[in-house]
Design brief:
The protein is mainly α. Helix content is about 75%, strand content about 0%.
Length: about 220
């Protein structure tokens, strides 16, 4: 493997990791459920909840990537335009995240902890029931030029594994944080955390828009 190929793989790993974190971070129903279970059942019950969501997300990521792979010619010719469109979509997502109130997703918790597998499966199917996540993947894949026309299957799998790694890292981090501050973490904490995530996504999106307008590619 030459130096250029190593840099390309590293580039794909970084992009995939970022995609995995961004997809997992907003506190939708599963994110709030993860926090609830961490507080009420323990850190590992919260983590397997996030892991279930991550496994569902990677399924939608594969569907999105497979669909976009048929647009080889468009991706190659209009890369910067697609990056601009992807950044705009992410900006809209960031605004939506900032303005949303995840506290509305709070549900009464059961006194029965259930098994780790049960907690995993419930989160998996809750996330699977929201196919709109595909639009977020389309925006992210376009922004980061994640789908590379003509690349080998093994090379593509590296990117998808990086998405899983990013998602797992996020869920490990958030459950660790919530577990550490469990005595001080409340409803307002969930709301503030979601707003911070929204701001970060918006800032990153604006930077992406500026780079695309300036003709700077992230590929």
């Amino acid at each position: 493997m030459n130096w250029l190929e190593q840099v390309t793989i590293l580039d794909l790993l970084v992009k995939g990791f970022i995609v995995g974190v961004v997809v997992s971070a907003p506190l939708g129903p599963v994110g709030v459920l993860c926090i609830q279970r961490t507080l009420n059942k323990g850190r590992w019950f919260g983590f397997v909840t996030g892991l279930g969501a991550a496994m569902s997300d990677i399924g939608y990521a594969l569907i999105t990537g497979y669909g976009m792979s048929f647009m080889d010619e468009i991706i190659i010719k209009h890369q910067l335009v697609l990056q601009l469109a992807g950044s705009i979509m992410l900006l809209c997502f960031g605004v939506y995240t900032f303005r949303s109130n995840p506290v509305k997703s709070l549900r009464p918790t059961s006194s029965n902890r259930g098994s780790l597998l049960h907690n995993f499966l419930t989160a998996f199917f809750v996330t699977l029931s929201n196919p709109l996540i595909i639009f977020l993947f389309i925006g992210l894949f376009a922004r980061f030029s994640f789908v590379l026309p003509g690349s080998l299957i093994g090379f593509q799998l590296v990117g998808y594994l990086a998405i899983v790694l990013g998602a797992v890292t996020w869920w490990l981090s958030i459950t660790y944080f919530v577990n550490k501050v469990r005595t001080r973490f409340n409803v307002r904490g969930i709301w503030m955390l979601n707003r911070i995530i929204g701001v970060v996504v918006m800032i990153a999106s604006v930077i992406g828009i500026i780079l695309a307008i300036a003709g700077k590619s992230l590929s």
